[in-house]
Amino acid sequence: MTDICVHGLGYIGLPTAAIFANSGFEVVGYDIDRDVVRSLQDGDIHFEEPGLDQFVNKAQKSGNLVVTTDVEPAETHIICVPTPFDTETKEANLDYVKSAGETVRDNLREDDLVILESTVPPETTEQVLQPILERSGFKAGEDFGLAHCPETVLPGNMINELRENDRIVGGITEKSTERAYQLYDSFVESDIHKASNPSTAEFAKLIQNTFRDTNIALANEIAILAHGYGIDSRESIDLANEHPRVNIHHPGPGVGGHCLPIDPWFLGHNSDDLNIISKSREINDGMTQYIIKLLQESLGTLSGKKISILGVAYKGNVGDIRQSPGLKLARELQLIQSDGQSQSPMEGTGVDIGIHDPHVSDQTLNLESLDMSISNSDVCVVTTDHDEFKELNPEKFNSLMNGNLIVDTKAILDQQWWENHGFDMIRI
Ligand code: SAJ
């Protein structure tokens, strides 16, 4: 008998299925994508995450994790499907949540528990998922349990974070909350906090990422201000953070990934009251234009120049390019025309761009080796703090680059060392 059926084997569903299986539960991992399921059955993980392949293989070898394209009845259904974001309307697309709900409904039995883990706008569990599930004829809270348990893992360190992070569980009844609590308690080593209801749990998850995004926006605004005053923003932020009640995050080329640039907008799904939150989004999104302004101040017109971009993953040591600032910078540079102004992409390009990222393997991006990407470039912009980039050697850049300008948006290079080799350094 299946204990748990995990719906969606992506970034969150797969590690979650594996950790439950490795904790002794009989788990079925279900995904509609046959290619994903086939490759998992062959032992291949379809995204980069340190240690995840061994972790999943261990779960599969034990017999506790079976991946399949067929849903089975299970005591607990955990929904981990994506909630895509519409960049135009700034709204969450809940189609996958709805269709996962329909699949669960078709397999639902009395006394089962349904948990939504996907990040969703407030009220989704109760207003969207619950009515779909109740079309089974069973009543939520009476005939079956229903809860929201948001995930909080940081890509790049998922397995440890699954165990070590605090969790929030919010059920539609105390019994639903308690059942979800007991389930996660099987592997969570930290505290599990009980929310009064699913909407409060949904809201708490969203404001965690919103706090981080807004804090980074503050750091980015500080960086812009400090640059204007000729002050090193990072030194001043580090000094400010010596105060026990101050914790300013780090500036950079903007905020990427599928969480921080999106979740704050989910708060506005049924509300018109976003203010500092939408302004923060604007500031973080504006960092690529700020970098272009810095480049123009140093180089004059950018048309005819070669710009090397190091890093199109959204952050260090991951291969994920979703909402990547490096890629956004490349695309905005491609819009620059011969007069150096941003124009329509249809009117040709004036900037030659060389992109290198040792963690990304996307065939559509024209990625180059490090040497190719920096060769003959006028400026090199470091946009991701991969470990490999921390070790970059200025001598190689001296011999291959045409110019001597480095924009280190993550402040990972040894400024003194590079300056000693004749480079002009701009740090964000
Ligand atoms: N970044 C900065 N400055 C900083 C920290 C981060 O510019 O001081 C940038 C990163 O370079 C990156 C972006 O922010 O582009 C997001 O990276 P991140 O490491 O802050 O977060 P994610 O998106 O990888 O994961 C976040 C985490 N949320 C929080 O820390 C509150 C993670 O715990 C969540 O599980 C995840 O979102 C999620 O799934 O919601």
From TrEMBL:
Gene Ontology molecular-function annotations? NAD binding; oxidoreductase activity, acting on the CH-CH group of donors, NAD or NADP as acceptor; UDP-N-acetyl-D-mannosamine dehydrogenase activity
InterPro entries the UniProt entry points to: 6-PGluconate_DH-like_C_sf, NAD(P)-bd_dom_sf, UDP-Glc/GDP-Man, UDP-Glc/GDP-Man_DH_C, UDP-Glc/GDP-Man_DH_C_sf, UDP-Glc/GDP-Man_DH_dimer, UDP-Glc/GDP-Man_DH_N, UDP_ManNAc/GlcNAc_DH
Q: Which UniProt keywords apply?
A: NAD, Oxidoreductase
Q: Where is the signal peptide?
A: none
Which reactions appear under catalytic activity for this entry?
A: UDP-N-acetyl-alpha-D-mannosamine + 2 NAD(+) + H2O = UDP-N-acetyl-alpha-D-mannosaminouronate + 2 NADH + 3 H(+)
Annotated UDP-glucose/GDP-mannose dehydrogenase C-terminal domain ranges read 308-415
Membership in a protein family: Belongs to the UDP-glucose/GDP-mannose dehydrogenase family.
Q: What name is this protein filed under?
A: UDP-N-acetyl-D-mannosamine dehydrogenase
Organism of derivation: Haloferax gibbonsii
